[in-house]
Amino acid sequence: MNLFESFAHALAAGAIDMLAAFDRGMLVDLGVNPTRVREWSKIRDVYYGPTRFKRQQAKAVSLARSHGASLDKLAFIERSLRLLDDDTERWRLRHRLLELRGPYNSFTRRAKEILPAQEPSVPEDYINFSESKDGKRRFCGSGDEHLLAALEHRLRDGLDTSKTSGPQMMRNFADILTGEGGGVQVPVPRPILAVGLPDFVRIMAGEGDDVVLALSDGTTMTGAEFLAAQFGDILEVAAFHPEAGAVNLYRTERRANKKQRDLAKMVSPLCAFPGCRHGADACELHHVTAWKHGGETNLDNLAPLCRYHNRINDDDPWRKRRGRIVMIRGAPVWISPRGYPVKNTNRGVMDKLFGDYRRRM
């Protein structure tokens, strides 16, 4: 069996046996999409994890093996059953679905005939934002239909029908947020901008249009935009060492003071966990060496983490479940459960001010 045949077998007929040897940490270290790893991990827990339905679990493994259920089929089954509250009914339906054979599209079509009809759930109100890319962000959300209908009507007011409506509606939305055209000004946290001295000299000489500066809200600004803005309102001065990072201030309080928070956000303008898009302004300040283990509230021990990643971080160094944050040369870096370092962003002030110097080390 060649390499591709082994790969195809692991995804198809041999999927259930492959899950028996599932290693989440190895997949993360090898660069597999964490979302896919989490989905496979949940499937593995169903078929091999602890349960009081031992006989039902063993039967499910046997059916999956004998009928050659692929990894995609197993994932579809678990997605389809996740809303059921009755564990006994869930196992019964799982067995019926595992008995189905055939190509994936045929399988899903027949599976929908077996699965009970579910009342559509009313979505909760929410709004999500993507990370910044090429100076843009995407957002989506769900809310009261009357409120959003009124918003759409407002955004469509006065559109030029000979042009695409989307860009015009976005401009109208921006007017509402910024207060132009009689809209309402939306307050936002004041972001912090760090400018290295060499870049500052270039920018002030009109030669720094290509310089990209990082802000603590996860966005960026070019040298030209920096000059055009009233930067006196957002510029704050801080001292950084190319190896140690931001200068320490206080150690007696568990909670960081405002200046410590500001400096930590400049070192890492995003949550330090790989793949997390949350800007530092929306993060909590994490003690790299946990407070319970004697960690001090000094800048060489503080890193911004979003609420979720702050809670799953392995605060105990001997536990290797989700990985943990460490400080490497003045900046926070995630160490995987298998010991591999991964940095979430190179847009922090240490990279901007001392990037060339640090790369030569």
UniProtKB/TrEMBL annotation:
InterPro entries: HNH, HNH_nuc
Keyword Hydrolase: yes
Record key words, sorted: Endonuclease, Hydrolase, Nuclease
One GO MF term: zinc ion binding
A Pfam entry, by short name: HNH
UniProt keyword annotation of Hydrolase present: yes
Superkingdom of the organism of origin: Bacteria
Stretches assigned to the HNH nuclease domain: 258-311
Coiled-coil annotated residue ranges, if any: none
Protein name: HNH endonuclease
Lineage: Bacteria, Bacillati, Actinomycetota, Actinomycetes, Mycobacteriales
